[in-house]
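Question: what's this shape?

___
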Amino acid sequence: MTKSVITGRADAPVLSCGEGLSFWGGVDAATGEVIDSLHPLKGQRLGGKILAIPTSRGSCTGSGVLLELIDNGQAPAALVFCESESILTLGALVAEHVFGHTIPVVQLDAEAFARLSHCDHASIDGQLLLAEGLELSLDPPSSAHIDLSERDSAMLEGHEGEAPKAAMRILHDMAVIEGASHLIDVNQVHIDGCIYASPALLRFAEFFAEMGARVRVPTTMNSISVDHAHWHLQGVPDAFGRPASRLADAYVEMGAQPSFTCAPYLLESTPSKGDVIAWAESNAVIYANSVLGALTAKHPDLLDLCIALTGRAPCYGVYLEEQRRARRVVEIEAPDVCDDAFWPLLGYRVGQLSPDRIPLLTGIAHFEADEDNLKALCAAFGTTSAAPMLHIEGVTPEAGQLTPEADRVTIPPSDLTHVWKQFNAGPDEIDLVAFGSPHLSLTECRALARLMAGRHSHPEVAGIVTLGRNTLKAAREEGIAEALEAAGLRLHADLCWCSISEPVFPPSARTLMTNSGKYAHYAPGLSGRAVRFGSIAECVSALCSGRASTLPPHWLQTVKS
């Protein structure tokens, strides 16, 4: 398919790459520089260039980053994809609706995309794309009819207020872009746009809050960028703390629950199999679909609020049964035993091998993965894949439902050794140990307390745990929080590692260690620090000794890379 998704004009150099890119954690929202240390475009400036990538990947907050880049003049001149893409497209759509200006978005077929990737310069003018030896007529943006309910139409026409009208306009246009024929009811929403990734996200939230917007369905909130109640005491500068807090307050004012966690599946409101929900936050979306058996598209930030304000979502993607089938079988040559480091290493590699499709994982049923293992697997998978779910044999309700064209790949142990080495490029002297990306569960807090029993963190190593308010409350009731604090760890609610900043992030730290595959990927770009990775036990060892092991996990040590 060769089409103009969002029409516009651009005349600029072409910057192309065959690998998807997460704008959140991968692109600096102020400058447009690629900061993902593992991406081929690392160090490139996107501003004023026609960016050609297969699709986006990773965080749902990429829409907010693009919104900021468009608003501050550092955005790409245009976006060109060769696969279906929602997150960045939504950012461009919202810029048009809210700020009155945007950039063109184009989708090409594989052949045309490959040809454009070899061009140095291109121009886009509405339905025409020109480059060296390439002249493409683009199909105009879809004008497909969306079957709206009476209430949908009432909101769209402004009969229920200005805020629902603005939200429904964005939902309607996104439904058209996604090829949805109608909207569906959802019974809960999880908002990811409350992370203060840029001033544009605050402007967007306050745009709706000032119209008196109110959510129509139960709505939880993702982790935010500060400890809401204590940031003043933690030395966070007003220039950051105030807008980050204002952003959270705007969503609470609109009726969202101040849950402030990136792991909404740990809340009492956890959905059940078959529930139709609308979650943003990549790890949560993947966990909901893959482990809980709930139904949610991978909604971009900003669209999540529009859904909460209307209770309606475009019916497309994995809301549809046929779209939930696996298109690739990943056969894992798993060891007989493993530790918790196995799951993020595996998720990360599966995502690399399935960047654009839902995979089925086989060969790991003998491990009987628990909820924390699956949390780590889903989070790491969402870092390297654009897919909204994966099938885990013995776990996912749809596991085994394949498309007719599904192919097969194998993950030998050497693949995991390679990922471990990628994650352990930093020196072995550790200054900071980071637990909780996604937020630590109560079970993980208990495990951490057992490992720390009778031990204390090294005087020159900071140990920090990020977790949800509900988990922290439960940990205090059990005495776990006090035990961890007595052992030298700091516990922070509300924020998470992918949104943490100095001085809560220790400014003097030069090398951090984490048990999170997600944060091992994002940390170099987000924090500018070197990284080490290991199991929770290996992280505790580093926390107490100041040094990380130079050896891979015992279950990988006999593997030849």
Notes: The CA atoms of residues 188 and 218 lie 5 Å apart.
